[in-house]
Amino acid sequence: MAPSINRSIDMVVVGCSAGGIEVLKRILSSLRTDFRPSLVIVQHISTGSAQSLSQFFASLCPLPVHEAEDQIPIENNKVYFAPAGYHLMVSDKKTFELSVEEPVRYSRPSINVLFETAADVYRDKLLGILLTGANDDGADGLRKIHLQQGVTIAQSPDEAEFAEMPNAAIRLHQPDFVLAIESVIRVLNDLK
Amino acid sequence: MMELEPYNLEIKLLLDAIYEKYSYDFRGYAMTSMKRRLETARARFDLKSLSSLQELVLYDEKFFSELLQYLTVPTTEMFRDPTYFLALREEVFPILKTYPSIKIWVAGCSTGEEVYSLAILLREEELLDRSLIYATDINPLSLKKAEQGILKDDRYDEYEDNYRKSGGKHRLSDYMTSKYDSLLMDRSLKKNIVFADHSLATDQVFSEVQLVSCRNVLIYFERDLQNRALGLFYESLSRKGFLGLGMKESIRFSAYGKHFHDFSKSEKIFQRD
After folding, report:
1. Contacts of A128 by beta carbon, 8 Å cutoff, 6+ apart
2. Looking at this predicted complex, what is its ipTM?
């Protein structure tokens, strides 16, 4: 019953805040090893966290997991995390750019910043997924993805540990899908 | 919806205009973050397009001074990333102590928070009197604020916490006086600091130094400009001199990377050959 996306997707961007770690554990451990697109994640995190997210998830995920670095080319079949304390952007050369500009919606890294810049570059080949969180970062970004012809998914607010983030997105625009995590995983693994 | 091609051309023309008229060279900056700053400026000045910005840039010099505040990134804080300052204090300074006089270059000093943090560190390690800190930036307003040494007091608690984690031996308040809603840096800290206009995009080496601290500046540059800046740092540093970058910056992809080795890997402090 899970929907499937028929077009070709080159990049998946994911944003989450409070409650995100548990959801990411489920998603990342379930990905098929030949998952083709690049998967870029902003998990709100404070600076000074001893172990980086990429190190933590590398052991759980069948795909290579890296911290996004400034100026590196974005590769398919890889998972990237935004580093703590920096905004992560996608450049039109399909490389990452970092910045330490002011927090957006009190967040740095900001989901909006990743989603908006990825939308400009990947347009209709972009899938954006907004998950659990206790603030509204990401709502504008998900809408921008939608306006640039990308596909948008919000986690079902009924299932999300913190519903504020998906609800904020749904208030701004009607995402293509509102799904429980099990369905999100199936959609991801069905991508061509 | 904006098509990208004419928009990219607008950006190029705007940055060319700024360079031709004012000699500020933003043409080698990382474009995704630059575009976002330009869009923020366009919206704040309530203009229809970047071409409108260009018109004002060409005919209104006062407008350009205001626009400049959007083009550079002033975000900074005292003792930002305390573990960096702790590593300077505990690992780099003992080596700098062996030099009869110490010259330090803070490149892209913004409004001075990092410069004063360094000065405090040097004072506490009894090195300030024989040190000279060059603090450079391209933004004249930031330089002016840095020179005045006036900080807003709304982040004092955070700064005090950062200071302590940097191995601070006293109290941060010992180094400043409170005035209305501002903090005024102690004048004695300024004696060994020279604030000057210098562009990593267009200017040259100006002094030999033992430490370059350039944190979260290179991320706003494209690769070529990053290389130019690293080249300036390489040429400025004495043999075995130190280069400190931001927590997520690296020299790995630069042609100059082979001339530096990791000194404190986790703190992004490198040592020149």
Report:
1. A12, A13, A14, A15, A115, A118, A119, A141, A142, A145, A146, A150, A151, A152, A153
2. 0.91
